[in-house]
Inverse folding.
């Protein structure tokens, strides 16, 4: 299969931890992991014309990730987020607003990229401001052939039911974690059983896949025809930052390579476990985990 081009659409930011700062943001993490797994991952975002913006460019180039679709904002700073880790390495986040990616404005070159993209991954955080929400939807409208993945990525108060419903209607694939599913279950009056709730969303929004990640308790991948429900695998955890984005990247590549739901689930879970075992959102990926190394 030819090389697949995937866009991580939305926020790019620095995770500020007590002992270090690392580049992240779900769309940027997704783009990095697609690239590391053998596709072409491209972040489409906006950074400040500042020191952190320059560090962003340097960090991505050092990881062989394209920076062509990162626009510079002269008036707003590069995004940051305060990340706190609990004793199990699970992160929680606090996001300042009015940062560069809140003012994302796609260029003609960005829309040409969207038109030829195979995959676009987007969430709710980059839709928190009117400008970036319009930008996300403009890019999606210009991508008729792309597999559109809605990774909800609910953060703080930066989402609402209208954004969720519109995003689900635009998506081909939905990915949630278990806490996010609890929120949607209450909001949309879904069945209390997690699998039944995911099946309801799958059919209600005519999705190609509905994916639920449950941290140490495994993952569920549903298609209209099949299901794969895997238990968790014992994994030493450095931190969980970027693991969900790695799962999404692996899932997307495996789906477009024609793998079964069970193969998709196992591959994505293995990739995510590898990320959990190393610190930071963008650790090195073993060559044996690349999509072209899978049987």
């Amino acid at each position: 299969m030819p090389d697949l081009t995937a866009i991580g659409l939305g926020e790019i930011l620095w995770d500020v931890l007590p002992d270090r700062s690392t580049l992240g943001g779900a769309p940027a993490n997704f783009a990095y992991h697609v690239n590391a797994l053998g596709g072409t991952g491209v972040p489409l975002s906006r950074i400040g014309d500042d020191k952190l913006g320059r560090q962003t460019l340097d960090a991505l180039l050092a990881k062989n990730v394209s920076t062509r679709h990162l626009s510079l904002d002269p008036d707003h700073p590069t995004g940051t987020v305060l990340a706190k880790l609990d004793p199990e390495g699970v992160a929680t986040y606090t996001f300042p607003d009015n940062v560069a990616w809140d003012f994302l404005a796609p260029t003609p070159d960005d829309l040409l990229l969207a038109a030829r993209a195979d995959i676009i991954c987007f969430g709710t955080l980059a839709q928190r401001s009117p400008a970036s929400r319009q930008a996300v939807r403009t890019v999606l409208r210009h991508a008729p052939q792309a597999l559109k993945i809605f990774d909800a990525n609910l953060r703080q108060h930066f989402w609402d039911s209208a954004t969720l419903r519109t995003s689900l209607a635009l998506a081909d694939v939905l990915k949630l974690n278990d806490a996010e599913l609890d929120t949607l279950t209450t909001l949309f009056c879904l069945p209390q059983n997690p699998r039944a709730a995911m099946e309801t969303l799958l059919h209600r929004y005519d999705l190609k896949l509905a994916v639920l990640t449950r941290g140490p308790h495994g993952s569920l991948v549903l298609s209209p025809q099949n299901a794969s429900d895997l238990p968790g695998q014992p994994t030493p955890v450095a931190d969980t930052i970027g693991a969900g984005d790695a799962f999404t990247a692996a899932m997307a590549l495996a789906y477009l390579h024609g793998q079964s739901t069970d193969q998709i689930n196992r591959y994505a879970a293995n990739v995510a476990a590898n990320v959990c075992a190393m610190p930071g959102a963008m650790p090195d990926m073993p060559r044996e985990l690349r999509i072209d190394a899978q049987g």
Observations:
- The domain at 5-286 is CATH 3.40.1190.20 (UDP-N-acetylmuramoyl-L-alanine:D-glutamate ligase).
- The mean pLDDT is 93.
- The CA atoms of residues 259 and 267 lie 10 Å apart.
- Residues 261-276 form the longest helix (16 residues).
